[in-house]
Amino acid sequence: MSKLETNTIDTVSGTTNLVVGSTNSSTVTFENGSPTGHMYPAFHAYLSATQTISNDTFTVVQFNTESLDTNNAYDNSSNYRFTPQVAGKYFIYASIANNPSGSNNIQQANIQIAKNGSAISKYQFASSTNPVDEIQLHAQIIVDLNGSSDYVDVRGQQAVSSGTNRFAGDTTQSRTYFGAYKIGA
Questions:
Q1: Which run of H or E residues covers position 34?
Q2: Where are the alpha helices (DSSP H) in 36-96?
Q3: Could you report the per-residue pLDDT of 13-63, keeping only the tens digit for each?
Q4: Which of 62, 91, 117, 165 could form a disulfide with 158 if both were Cys (CB 3.0 to 4.6 A apart)?
């Protein structure tokens, strides 16, 4: 194995792409200073304020604030879904902070990652005898997306004994969030 050490690698005058690799290996392409390929497109969005929901009803979480959206592929204002225009395998992750207005009353909470409207990853908390004040649920999955019409969104559900059902949001991006990035072809 050889080792190359240098301070600067630049493109040939008149070109904009620098390709590292050969036909015998994977390639890494840098276009106009931005890496492409693995991990792009990517986005991360979060719920910036509390979202009130109906009791015991699956509801699309309104992740309304983006902290990253490399390809403008996440809709943060109407459908709250990720529709990448690049086909490939994607790592999808989400978290919902379930925090109803009453204490010790969450009997059930669910999170789902859905592809084209159908759940593909589900996690649930259920306890009728020992309800809790608040619970954070996480979900993740690797999924193929076709790059044209496939989309993913996140749905949550709560069943409470009393009080107002709600997903907790805040500006720290640490409670209720949703993101994805491409990991391969």
A1: strand 34-35
A2: none
A3: 777 666 665 566 555 554 455 555 567 899 999 999 999 999 999 999 999
A4: 165
- The Cα 135–Cα 108 span in angstroms is 10
Locate 50 and state its tokens: 């509390």
pLDDT reading at 152 higher than 60: yes
Question: Scanning the structure block, which residue is given the tokens 């991006």?
Answer: 173
β-sheet bridge partners, residue 69:
43
Q: Are 109 and 98 in contact (CB under 8 A)?
A: yes
pLDDT in tens, 101-148: 877 688 999 999 999 999 999 999 998 788 888 899 999 999 999 999
Q: Which of these, 90, 108, 57, lies nearest to 178 by C-alpha position? A: 90
Task: Please tell me the distance from the alpha carbon of residue 90 to that of residue 96, in angstroms, as a whole number.
Answer: 20
β-pair type (34-35, 28-31): antiparallel
Contacts of 42 (CB under 8 A, 6+ apart): 68, 69, 70, 71, 179, 180, 181, 182
CATH topology of domain 38-184: Jelly Rolls (2.60.120)
Percentage of the chain surpassing pLDDT 70?
86
